[in-house]
Amino acid sequence: MPVPARRLPSWVWVTGLTAGAIVAVAALAVQADKGAHPTATPARPSASASAGAQPKPTKSEAPAVVPDDSGTGRRVVYSLGQKRVWLVDAGDASRRTFTVWPGTVSPDPGTYTISQRTEATTGTDGVEIEHILYFAAKSGLSIAFSNAVDGSSPPPAAGIRTSGIRMDKADGSALWTFGETGTTVVVVR
Questions:
Q1: pTM of the model
Q2: Which of 75, 157, 155, 172 is nearest to 120 (CA)?
């Protein structure tokens, strides 16, 4: 006499499938861990952010002079034409200057203030970024200074509107230390 088949409850099926998926993912993770690991090498060693740290000027053959039309006092100056940033102290002396890689949307010349600071997030281009200092908005995008977590500076992807102004990791750390909320940002041509 045949015995009638018993149906398994749905929770048994779900549990079995979930356990199988976890085992498969774990096996793939172990395989991936055994492969080659790409590493990013920063262009310069990163600066430590101690409480009394002051940004230092970067070395260059001929130090770039702070633009005349950039105001006075403690400020961040961003030149659209030179693709360069200056950190200027209260005595109008340049404490540090460095080149940047602007996105596809640039701020208009003018005076702004840093309105928000975010430690880390993902940029509109999908790159993990840190030390984000927001200071303007244009064309529906927030404009901010930042650096890629891995130190890279890829060109903006074709067709994607980006408003991030990227810099080297060490320069991003220096700007993060210098640019508190409320710090003036002057954008010049």
A1: 0.66
A2: 172
